């Protein structure tokens, strides 16, 4: 027969105290889950647009800080990239925030407007491809159906076959279709239209000034090699500029020398785009946005700080519970020491109690947080979901929190002397 551990028996002896302890641990675990969930949702929502862009290399103004604060640059820089043989196509993106008028309440709210070339095919979002031709019509836009409800019942009215018209930045527009992207911490909603319609809305924007340049490379192209070439990075000592060009084209020297047309058209091709733009890969473009929210705003500090506060609160709660339990059983501990049990055994009892508390408090909180995540997602459209990685991280934090509390409370057991107690 397997003996019931002493730690379990001590915890179950005071059921009310055990329930209070589990409630405190559960609260701390929920707080850590919610803080980490909001932080991850922030980063995911911030780069959701980037992840759905169909491109390999992106050009932005070096003075840009985030999608909601882009600085324009000359479209000629994007066209210059067409001189490189690796480039298959280029597309322009215009970005700006504008006031959207709710067609029912007539209230206004800031929304992100994206202007694209209708034939560019740069977005991989549900609803874009089937509606892309509609934005070629003057003053027609596509509305993000995952935008916040404050913009009005646009998706419902559109699906009912109603003519949905409103004002954006004081200009009358018609909703020609829906797509799915989702709100972010920077924008509560999104609208996509053509580059021409974008300039009709923002009349002060000069023609030829874009916010993001998207470059698609030919299939099989070396992205790292193209990045180095666009940036004008010097060749390695063992690799000349000529050798790098051969590698990017997948040609041997013999093949290249027989291609007289290529030699005549590319002999004087400039190496590297001008330095007044920033050349980024897709991963770097996403990291550019993530870094802004993590390091350039207070939000990146608040959520880790909230997680740390939850950890500290849980540690204090568990310590109080374990310390009270140790004091209540101090006589029993002293008796065990008088019977020959070592300090190590008594310490293991307290640590077992801490571990049991962490497990019993964690799993109910995990189930509750899954429901809270779902509720938050439906209310805000933020991409907040339970992940295995986050569940494991919080589990380890919960165990560590309780073990630290046990380590502090166990000092009283070590000091228990049978001669002083009896």
Give a description of the structure.
With 422 residues, this protein is α+β, with helices and mostly antiparallel strands. It has two domains: 6-45 and 298-421, no CATH class; 62-215, no CATH class. Helices cover 51% and strands 15% of the residues. The chain contains 16 helices and eleven strands. A nine-stranded mixed beta sheet has the order 6-7-5-8-4-3-10-1-11. A two-stranded antiparallel sheet has the order 2-9. Helix 11 packs across helix 14 (388-409) and helix 13 (343-380) packs antiparallel against helix 14. The longest helix has 38 residues, at 343-380. Mean pLDDT is 84; it is low at 251-270.
Rounded mean pLDDT is 84
Structural class: alpha+beta
Strand content: 15-25%
Number of separate structural domains: 2
Shape: elongated
Question: What is the overall number of helices?
Answer: 16
Tell me the span between the first and last alpha carbons. Answer: 34 Å
> What's the order of the H and E elements?
HHEEHEEEHEEEHEEHHHHEHHHHHHH
Q: Helical content, roughly?
A: 40-55%
Describe the oligomeric state of these chains in a short phrase: single chain
Instruction: Enumerate the spans where pLDDT stays under 50 for 5 or more consecutive residues.
Output: 251-270
Summarize the biggest pleated sheet: 9 strands, mixed
Rg over C-alpha atoms, rounded to the nearest angstrom: 31 Å
Give the number of DSSP strands: 11
What strand order characterises the main sheet?
A: 6-7-5-8-4-3-10-1-11
């Amino acid at each position: 027969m397997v003996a019931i551990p002493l730690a379990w028996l001590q915890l179950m002896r005071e059921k009310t105290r055990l329930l209070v302890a589990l409630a405190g641990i559960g609260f701390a675990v929920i707080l850590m889950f919610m803080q980490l969930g909001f932080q991850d949702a922030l980063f995911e929502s911030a780069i959701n647009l980037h992840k759905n862009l169909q491109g390999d290399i992106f050009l932005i103004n070096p003075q840009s800080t985030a999608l909601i604060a882009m600085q324009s640059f000359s479209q000629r820089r994007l066209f210059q990239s067409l001189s490189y043989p690796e480039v298959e196509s280029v597309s322009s993106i215009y970005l700006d925030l504008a006031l959207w008028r709710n067609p029912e309440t007539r209230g206004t709210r800031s929304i992100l407007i994206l202007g694209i070339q209708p034939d560019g095919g740069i977005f991989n979002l549900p609803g874009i491809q089937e509606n892309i031709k509609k934005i070629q019509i003057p003053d027609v836009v596509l509305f993000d159906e995952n935008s916040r409800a404050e913009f009005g019942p646009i998706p419902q009215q559109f699906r009912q076959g109603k003519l949905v018209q409103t004002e954006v930045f004081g200009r009358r527009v018609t909703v020609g279709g829906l797509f799915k992207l989702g709100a972010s911490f920077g924008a509560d909603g999104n609208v996509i239209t053509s580059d021409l319609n974008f300039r009709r809305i923002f009349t002060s924007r000069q023609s030829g000034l874009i916010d993001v340049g998207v470059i698609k490379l030919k299939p099989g192209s070396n992205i790292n090699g193209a990045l180095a070439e666009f940036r004008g990075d010097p060749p390695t000592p063992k690799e000349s500029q000529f050798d790098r060009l051969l590698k990017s084209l997948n040609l041997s020297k013999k093949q290249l020398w027989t291609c007289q047309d290529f030699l005549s058209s590319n002999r004087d091709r400039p190496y590297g785009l001008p330095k007044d733009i920033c050349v980024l890969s897709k991963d770097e473009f996403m990291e550019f946005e993530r870094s802004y929210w993590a390091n350039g705003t207070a939000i990146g500090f608040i959520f880790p700080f909230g997680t740390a506060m939850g950890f500290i609160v849980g540690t204090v709660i568990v310590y109080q519970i374990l310390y009270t339990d140790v004091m209540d059983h101090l006589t029993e501990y002293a008796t065990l020491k008088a019977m020959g049990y070592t300090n190590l055994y008594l310490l293991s009892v307290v640590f077992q109690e801490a571990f049991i508390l962490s497990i019993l408090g964690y799993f109910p909180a995990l189930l509750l947080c899954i429901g809270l995540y779902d509720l938050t997602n439906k209310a805000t459209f933020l991409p907040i979901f339970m992940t295995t990685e986050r569940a494991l991280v919080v589990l380890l934090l919960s165990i560590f929190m309780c073990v630290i509390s046990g380590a502090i409370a166990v000092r009283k057991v070590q000091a228990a002397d049978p001669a002083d107690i009896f």
